[in-house]
Design brief:
Elements (H helix, E strand, L loop, with lengths): L17 E4 L1 H7 L8 H17 L1 E5 L3 H9 L8 H12 L6 E4 L3 E2 L3 E2 L16 H9 L6 E3 L4 H10 L5 E3 L2 H12 L2
Parallel strand pairs: 1-2, 1-6, 2-3, 6-7
Antiparallel strand pairs: 4-5
Amino acid sequence: MPPFITPESTLDGPRAATYVVDTNVILVANGQHPGVSEACVQRCARWLQGLMASGRLALDEGYEIVREYQHNTRSSDGQGVGDEFLRWVLLHLDDPVRCDLVPLKAHPQRGYEAFPDDARVSGFDAADRKFVALARAHPEAPPILQATDSKWLDWAAPLADHGVTVQFLCASDVHQFHVHKFGQ
């Protein structure tokens, strides 16, 4: 297992710290990701529940991440843990004890000033750059929680060189998806 992958056995839930949460963690916790193991669904749900109980969330002050969460979940009538997490986010957006709102400056080529100027991540998905920029712009450089987006496996090491930690909650699942998608 690559050194930037945390063993799943140590990922019971957040440790009262600040985190950036990729949307796929919410989708997996909601059961909206086909082919994911039940262990992965439960782990993502535990992490979101732990964040709601005692953790802190980093968000961009332009609410791009919140809008993405809203586009993919149902805060008003959804019954999943991801839906519950979105309701929590909307309730705590203005609570500096629970959420940090960080400004992100646009960049014409990279999408965001805080996104690394590094050829190794030049092919990074435009839609996911906000998570990386947020982690880099935040004074604590919080880890990004990632569930099953296997492309992040290829980017984790170069991102680490820029101070960005990607915490894979479902290492077995993400490796399996990576092999299926890229053959390695």
